[in-house]
Amino acid sequence: MAGLIQRGVVRISPMKPRIFDLDRRQVLARLGASLGASAAGFMTAGAAPLPTAQVLLQAKPATLDLRPGRSATAIWELAAASHTRGVRLKRGDLCEVVFRNDLPVPLAPAWYGLNGAAVADPQRGRMPTAPGATETSTISISSAGTLLIDLRLFEGGLKQPSRPLPIIAAETSPIAVDRDEVLLIEEWHLRPDGAAVPPGQDPKDTTPLYTINGHTSFELSASGNQRLRLRFINGSQRSVLAIKLESHEVRVMALDGQPAEPFPARNGALVLAPGARADAFVDATKSAVFLLHDGKAAHTVGNLKVSGRFERSAPLEPARPLPSNDLPEKLDLKGALRFDVALGAPDTGWARTASFSTASLPAFRTKAGRTIVLALKNPAPVTTVFALHGHHFRLLDRLDDGWKPYWLDTLAIEPGQTERIAFAATSPGRWLIESVATDWAAPRLVRWYGVE
Fold this sequence. Notes:
CATH superfamily of the domain at 2-8 and 175-310: Cupredoxins -  blue copper proteins
Shape: globular
CATH architecture of the domain at 2-8 and 175-310: Sandwich
Oligomer: single chain
CATH topology of the domain at 2-8 and 175-310: Immunoglobulin-like
Number of helices: 3
Strand content: 35-45%
Structural class: mainly beta
Strand order of the largest sheet: 11-10-13-18-15-16
Radius of gyration: 21 Å
Number of strands: 31
């Protein structure tokens, strides 16, 4: 499956509103005291600009109806108390983020797809938020795209599997689509009594189950020739998943939150590593089914129902590329610094997230402004997933003389294979890299790299 994404969904139920125990006005009133310190990494000399957006996040216990007609399953979730229909920001926002931890373990949400925001990256000397505490930070939304906030870096302490939270950063100019929907795919492993096993633990005697936005079945209703922007997110913690819409062209417009040169998904299927995202345009022309493939079997997970009413008499012309997020057009491969990184290999500096320390040796260091090429080798007998924090990368061609026409921050690497990636090290700081095997019981491992 990993090869397919290198070539290269559904009426979304509104997310239920969440509220803090603290009143929203009380929470926002407390932002002023910490705003200056939290935003220091993003401000120039002089008065700090006022934030243009606020997001209230809450980590809390919840339940999910995973077995129709039976008792709900206990889970943990990261929810947005400030937004009732999903968090939608826009490129250029300076966002106040208030995080309330109502779970019994220390936590810090990690942002995926947000380049250069050091305050958003936990485990790098930043203390997690204690149970019952609230933390405020200020984050610059420098790019448009599909982002993800997750608690996965602290999964060793989670007593229940947790749900991530999609974040949409809109382009500053309108995009010619009729609807813009999020499709969050999640994986659960249930015991016979209905209890869910967290990732990193033995899933023996469990049954895997997949949901779309928390539902075991879904339906997308659309008018004929309506253009849909579907933001696919693989919220699974371990599995590479393929989602296919039959009888339609699925045109890939962005991967991992960054615009791509548009291309059709092979056979209408998108293959996504855990944590990966893909924006696709689909022109609804006929009713069809959605299929989800987990590498073992295909599952019908929903339907596209096209009504007799037409949005327009004929489909729109093929879409132009999405606006650039100003990542570099070219990378200096000839002058690049090159490093070999063996994913998850013992005695190479990888650590479980619970025992990680920034006092450990880095995977590599570089001066800001250099091009970095990493040779990522997977010595494991199963597919292993690599994630880069702080920057997006290009996947290099096998001959190392060019790259695929898209950016990524997450990549699945097959057993025994080596993939090469390149990125421009533009964001100073210490940044995480992740390695996790596609095995539910496998630990999540981390290292760090330095840009000086």
